[in-house]
User: Which sequence fits this backbone?
């Protein structure tokens, strides 16, 4: 059985512990804090450096997580708004309907660790990781269909809770320079992403997909809170298979709920049929997912085909950027995200990717 990868960023963890100790002691109001057991989590921390650690002082012990803003050489997103991640956690905790980690402190001074960072309380549980894919190996494969059903239902309920959040509570996500909230801002952002990430190496298939999504935009865009990276692999579950928390808000926006549904269905396919493995019994089918989401939100499913095509384009661009930034050869390697979007349009198309 292959293991999930570790995404270390070359940091001296002992030096980080020494730097964090006095800073954290001041915020806890104690004389001294011992920073111990620093470790990178398995299968997490691609876009933001993530380190788990324990903080011990007189009379208390805290299990914490350090998230550090990406250095330019590790930057996965165009103009990453690192501060927004922290604000998302605070806003969602205030609402109390979406289970997210408790954000404790944000530090924007890069003097301490070289980049801005924030600290949050650690959640305990298990994640259906993507590498290796959870439908083929890992704890979900060892669960019963009923236990998997508990996982799936809890996941969809949390997705619906995201989409019930009042948009005004997340106004800090609005970027008027990119147009109106919803589809317009998303198209602007991802065109900028492609130019930033790929420079003059944008494949023809990507141009063709941009032409299609631009020319076939839904007549009405319904803005609203969008998680951005909506998938079961960004959720944590307890030993009872009930959801513990929803993670990774780097791509959050006001794109609206349909953007999340398109992304969710894309990755549901990528982590099953696109890998040549069947979806585990108990994890809801496409129609079950759409049916439960509609029941929970009271919203109709609108323009899903467009959002699925766009989701594949977005995920494909991220895969292309990751391969390019790691200086890995793209020729001859399929991009399942782009290929899926092409198939949805009845076309053939392939570009190198991950």
Assistant:
């Amino acid at each position: 059985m292959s293991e999930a990868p570790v995404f270390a960023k070359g940091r001296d963890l002992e030096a980080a512990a020494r730097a964090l100790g006095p800073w954290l002691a001041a915020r806890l109001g104690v004389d001294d804090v011992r920073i111990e057991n620093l470790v990178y989590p398995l299968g997490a921390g691609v876009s933001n450096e993530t380190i788990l650690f324990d903080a011990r002082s007189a009379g208390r012990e805290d299990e914490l997580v350090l998230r550090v803003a990406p250095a330019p050489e590790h930057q996965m997103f165009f103009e990453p708004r690192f501060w927004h991640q922290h604000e998302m956690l605070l806003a969602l905790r205030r609402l109390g309907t979406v289970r997210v980690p408790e954000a404790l402190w944000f530090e924007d001074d890069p003097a301490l660790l070289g980049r801005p960072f924030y600290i949050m309380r650690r959640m305990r549980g298990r994640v259906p990781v993507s590498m290796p894919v959870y439908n083929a190996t890992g704890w979900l494969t060892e669960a019963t269909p009923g236990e998997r059903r508990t996982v799936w239902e809890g996941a969809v309920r949390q997705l619906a809770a995201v989409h019930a959040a009042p948009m005004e509570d997340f106004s800090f996500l609005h970027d008027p320079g990119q147009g109106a909230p919803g589809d317009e801002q998303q198209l602007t952002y991802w065109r900028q992403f492609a130019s930033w990430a790929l420079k003059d190496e944008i494949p023809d298939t990507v141009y063709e997909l941009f032409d299609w999504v631009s020319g076939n935009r839904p007549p009405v865009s319904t803005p609203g809170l969008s998680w951005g990276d909506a998938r079961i692999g960004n959720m944590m579950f307890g030993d009872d298979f009930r959801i513990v928390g929803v993670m990774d808000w780097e791509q959050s926006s006001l794109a609206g709920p349909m953007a999340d549904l398109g992304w969710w269905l894309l990755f549901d396919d990528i982590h099953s049929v696109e890998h040549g493995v069947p979806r585990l019994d108990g994890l809801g089918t496409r129609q079950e997912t759409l049916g439960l989401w509609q029941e929970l939100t009271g919203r109709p499913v609108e323009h899903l085909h467009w959002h699925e095509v766009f989701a594949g384009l977005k995920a494909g661009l991220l895969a292309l950027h990751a391969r390019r930034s790691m200086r890995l050869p793209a020729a001859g390697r399929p991009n399942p995200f782009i290929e899926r979007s092409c198939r949805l349009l009845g076309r053939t198309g392939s570009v190198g990717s991950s």
In short: Residues 304-325 form the longest helix (22 residues). The CA atoms of residues 181 and 290 lie 24 Å apart. The mean pLDDT is 91. The longest strand covers residues 49-57.
